[in-house]
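F.,

This is the one I mentioned.
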């Protein structure tokens, strides 16, 4: 009798054994999917990982079907899954769920996802009919505004009025509604009145067009060539090299030269970026050189397309280069030669929820180890403390590039002490006079401006002016954010939305006001102050629809937008050539965060945002507004003094037993009942202290102590470098199993976050 061990796509540890009917015995092998029964009536698509003939000491059930003729999982991928499950203390089933596209976890054929789009009605595609349409809509202001927004997004308004544009970009309905701040009812009226035509478009297409053009690779400057030679030398001594190049030093061009060398050797390259927004801009640069040899993989692509890319990577004609976000590390490669982790310091590489809570940088390093001769290049202008420490101790190679491309000067950073300005009543609202003057000068000179505000929505909080009541989420322990475009209060933790109250339920006052500034409110103020400027906003709310990323970035790159307002999305490696001014509206939201990494993240974010200014030609200007102007970290950002910043921070980390000198593991407990989770946390901490003594801190309430109706407690473990990690994991698991064996805590959700960010 043949038996097969399988991984189920469920949060379950280890593998499960099933028997294989004789008729299927020849079809079952490692890496194929099989349909298996579980419980009384459920079936799941499981992954076969091993076959054997040793009868287990329990009654097995037969598999129902072998789904694949050939494996969809390679042995090296399985090893990566097993490493992630072990290192991050996550169930193997959760790794399976995270790694495979949904279409490969279901036995039915996956249908491509479609998105609703609009285009201009055929009968309006002449200048006279367009003028008639606008006059008809003059009485319906919201319809006219939405129609005008469509014309702007599709670039129809940029034509000479006689001939339509050669290429009208597809506009998703969701994106149009978002940009126009309009309701679906307004759009339906435009469709019913035959101003716009609606249609369904399949989302996502594989990159199958475009010849490779290596001649489009730009020659390197002397400094870039030196850096590339050093990287190649370091690769002879180290599997991993940290490439520390200042913003706009031309790191991407060096990557392109290295990629071409890999392709010449018949190797594949994985190029990881932390944000989908970055893949949009990078795709165009890489396509010009590598054409259809480039594949793109991230979560905004349709599931059907991700399945196709996965299968293409297993075919005889795979992509030679994969450009993608965090999840691309799970794709199959047969000839992997190099992994580039660009912006390696970014926290977006760490998966937070759900499990597995892996870091793509660490996973990429482990993946490369499985391929003989494969290397990892970590690129950044602001290295993470862990990578910088590994480079300074000789574990990683280290290459530094200190000059910007074409010797363009780093931007001038002016610190504006807004606390003093507010005190002297010289500033109201979010903009200092110095910033407003800089924006005016930039617009007058036909230059562009970026404004950075790391909070989305209209107002981070709504408050009653009379009694101080603040609306909070019924599911989470947080105040609600006001989104004016939707006229809703939204919880940014569980996504639940609430109607805006007409009066305070506490004192019945109608004086409810928004406190603070989100990107949406900043956009409104900028439109009031600069009515002639073309303004766009890039945050989670404006980039939900397909194609929104590429449109916002494309419009700004081509000069169709004058002022771009955004959250941290705009800080991460985007390359715009005409930006003269960057305004950081409130640095304190990052500096005053209760976390030991707050200054590290603030230094990186402020430096990266500043690096968007003056990337070509004239020196850029950064206006950094803060109430903490005398903090050393602010001076270090202004002076671009990474070495001084790293020295101070590492000394502090060593003193207080934090990474990179000690490892951290957070233990989270979640339960609906607060008393139950409190007592369970005390019991869990006690069990951990039996093994780890004073390495255990807590339990404590995290800053947000209730999410999605579940109460949360956190325990911190600090483990010194050199400790036996396998033994530590075993002891942690035993403590959890001991706790959950108590019937009072059987329903408790207890999980680990290893190397948390």
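My design for it:
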């Amino acid at each position: 009798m043949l038996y097969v061990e399988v991984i189920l796509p469920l949060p379950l540890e280890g593998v499960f054994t099933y028997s294989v009917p004789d008729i299927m015995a020849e079809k079952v092998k490692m890496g194929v999917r099989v349909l298996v029964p579980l419980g009384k009536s459920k079936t799941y698509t499981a992954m076969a990982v091993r076959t054997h003939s040793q009868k287990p000491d329990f009654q097995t059930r037969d598999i129902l079907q072998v789904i694949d003729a050939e494996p969809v999982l390679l042995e090296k991928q399985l090893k990566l899954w097993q490493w992630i499950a072990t290192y991050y203390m996550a169930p193997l089933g959760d790794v399976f769920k995270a790694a495979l596209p949904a279409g490969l976890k279901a036995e039915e054929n996956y249908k491509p996802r479609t998105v609703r789009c609009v285009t201009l009605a055929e009968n309006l595609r002449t200048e006279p009919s367009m003028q008639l349409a606008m006059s008809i809509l003059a009485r319906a202001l919201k319809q006219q505004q939405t129609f005008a927004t469509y014309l702007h997004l599709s670039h129809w308004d940029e034509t000479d009025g006689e001939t339509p544009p050669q290429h009208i970009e597809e506009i998703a309905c969701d994106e149009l509604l978002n940009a126009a701040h309009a309701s679906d009812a307004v759009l339906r009226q435009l469709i019913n009145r035959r101003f716009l035509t609606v249609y369904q478009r399949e989302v996502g297409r594989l990159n199958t067009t475009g010849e490779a053009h290596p001649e489009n690779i730009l020659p390197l400057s002397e400094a870039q060539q030196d850096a590339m030679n050093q990287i190649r030398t370091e690769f002879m001594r180290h599997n991993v090299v940290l490439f520390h190049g200042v913003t706009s030093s031309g790191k991407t061009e060096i990557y392109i030269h290295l990629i071409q060398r890999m392709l010449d050797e018949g190797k594949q390259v994985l190029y990881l970026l932390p944000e989908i927004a970055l893949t949009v801009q990078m795709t165009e640069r890489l396509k010009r050189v590598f054409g259809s040899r480039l594949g793109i993989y991230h979560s905004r692509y349709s599931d059907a397309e991700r399945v196709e890319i996965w299968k293409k990577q297993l075919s005889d004609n795979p992509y030679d280069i994969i450009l993608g976000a965090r999840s691309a590390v799970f794709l199959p490669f047969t000839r992997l030669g190099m992994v580039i982790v660009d912006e390696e310091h970014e926290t977006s590489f760490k998966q937070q929820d759900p499990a597995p809570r892996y870091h793509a940088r660490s996973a990429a390093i482990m993946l490369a180890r499985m391929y003989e001769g494969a290397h990892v290049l970590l690129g950044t202008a602001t290295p993470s403390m862990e990578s910088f420490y590994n480079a300074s101790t000789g574990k990683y190679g280290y290459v530094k590039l200190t000059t910007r491309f074409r010797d363009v000067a780093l931007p001038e950073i002016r610190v504006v002490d807004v606390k003093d300005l507010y005190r002297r009543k010289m500033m109201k609202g979010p903009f200092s006079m110095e910033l407003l003057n800089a924006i005016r000068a930039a617009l007058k000179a036909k230059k562009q401006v970026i404004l950075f505000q790391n909070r989305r929505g209209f107002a981070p909080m709504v408050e009653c002016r009379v009694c101080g009541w603040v609306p909070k989420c019924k599911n989470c322990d947080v105040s609600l954010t006001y989104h004016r475009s939707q006229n809703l209060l939204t919880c940014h933790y569980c996504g639940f939305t609430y109607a805006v109250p007409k009066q305070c339920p506490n004192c019945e006052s109608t004086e409810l006001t928004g406190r603070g500034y989100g990107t949406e409110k900043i956009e409104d103020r900028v439109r009031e102050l600069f009515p002639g400027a073309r303004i766009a906003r890039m945050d989670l709310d404006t980039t939900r629809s397909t194609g929104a990323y590429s449109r916002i970035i494309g419009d700004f790159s081509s000069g169709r937008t004058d002022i771009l307002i955004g959250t941290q999305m705009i800080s991460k490696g985007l390359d715009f050539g005409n930006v003269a001014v960057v305004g950081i509206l409130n640095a304190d939201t990052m500096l005053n965060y209760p976390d030991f990494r707050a200054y590290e993240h603030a230094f990186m974010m402020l430096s990266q945002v500043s690096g968007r200014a003056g990337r070509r030609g004239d020196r850029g200007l950064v206006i950094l507004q803060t109430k903490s102007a005398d903090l050393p970290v602010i001076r270090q950002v202004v002076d671009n003094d990474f070495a001084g910043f790293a020295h101070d921070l590492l000394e502090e980390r060593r003193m207080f037993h934090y990474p990179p000198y000690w490892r951290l593991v957070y233990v989270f407990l979640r339960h609906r009942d607060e008393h139950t989770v409190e007592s369970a946390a005390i019991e869990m901490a006690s069990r951990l202290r039996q093994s780890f003594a004073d390495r255990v801190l807590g339990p404590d309430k995290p800053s947000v102590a209730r999410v999605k109706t579940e109460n949360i407690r956190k325990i911190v473990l600090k483990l010194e470098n050199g400790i036996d990690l396998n033994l530590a994991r075993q002891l942690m698991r035993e403590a959890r199993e001991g706790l959950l064996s108590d019937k009072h805590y059987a329903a408790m959700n207890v999980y680990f976050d290893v190397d948390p960010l």
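The chain has 22 helices and 31 strands.

Talk soon.
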